[in-house]
Specification:
single chain, 11 strands, 0% helix
């Protein structure tokens, strides 16, 4: 299983970015998927997920209304659309898939929100 995250970079406050995560060795449409982030000096936190049981999306309060998780099953790629970015969104972002009680992580992509 490989998860390849991309799309991070430097953006000004109020700007937008879209993160992508290409998956191989695992299908995204029958497994739980999520995006996590880890800011400097802080624990890794889950910010969004899609449940394998009810296919519903869920968001942390800190990103609700600004971020959108999605997946393209034809491309086997998951996305995180991030709008209205704030300096406190600065972190390394990780894609995640849980399959058969095993956890798989992407390598992380850095998002820096700064003027």
């Amino acid at each position: 299983v490989q998860l390849q995250a991309s799309g991070g970079g430097l953006v000004q406050p109020g700007g937008s970015l879209r993160l992508s995560c290409d998956a191989s060795g695992v299908t995204l449409d029958y497994n739980a998927i999520a995006w996590f982030r880890q800011a400097p000096g802080k624990d890794r936190e889950r910010i969004s997920c899609i449940s394998r049981y009810d296919d519903k999306t869920r968001y942390a309060d800190s990103v609700k209304g600004r971020f959108t998780i999605s997946r393209d099953t034809a491309k086997n790629t998951m996305y995180l659309q991030m709008n209205s970015l704030k300096p406190e969104d600065t972190a390394v972002y990780y894609c995640y898939v849980r399959k058969m009680a095993r956890n798989y992580w992407g390598q992380g992509t850095l998002v820096t929100v700064s003027s």
